[in-house]
Amino acid sequence: MTDEYADLSRIKHLEEEIILTVNPTEEDHKALLEQIRTMIIALENGPRKQDFLAAKDKTRKLAQTILKTEWDRVRGWRSLRKLWRRLKEIWKRLDH
Questions:
Q1: What is the pTM of this model?
Q2: CB of 23 within 8 A of CB of 29?
Q3: pLDDT tens-digit profile of 35-78?
Q4: What value does the mean pLDDT take over residues 15-38?
Q5: What residue numbers bound the domain in which 44 lies?
Q6: Which residues contact 15 (CB under 8 A, 6 or more apart)?
């Protein structure tokens, strides 16, 4: 098994995992899947290293954007949960 074939196999496997974890209704998630597919096509078409590296760079940037958005969303929920806990504590004190 050559390194390129191993890379292709690994990327295809990761693609399947990512498909199961992204939200298919969000545009940036769709774009990420398209970029992953572009990387796979570049590897399948032979020695097109420039195409692969360009797709890899775009994929990385999209993934970073998605991760940042999701992190902000989770962090926002954490802040809301903390606020909710504090409010519950205050209400309990007021009730006593």
A1: 0.71
A2: yes
A3: 999 988 888 887 677 888 888 899 999 999 998 888 888 888 77
A4: 91
A5: 3-95
A6: 33, 36, 37, 40
pLDDT band at residue 1 using 50, 70 and 90 as cut-offs: very low
CA dihedral 54, 57, 63, 68 (to 10 degrees): -140
Q: What is the spatial distance between Cα 96 and Cα 91, in angstroms, rounded to a whole number?
A: 9
DSSP 1: -
More confident residue, 87 or 22: 22
Distances (CA, A) of 76 to 10, 63, 81, 84: 34, 20, 9, 12
11 closest CA partner among 55, 47, 50: 55
Distance from C-alpha of 76 to C-alpha of 72, rounded to nearest angstrom? 6
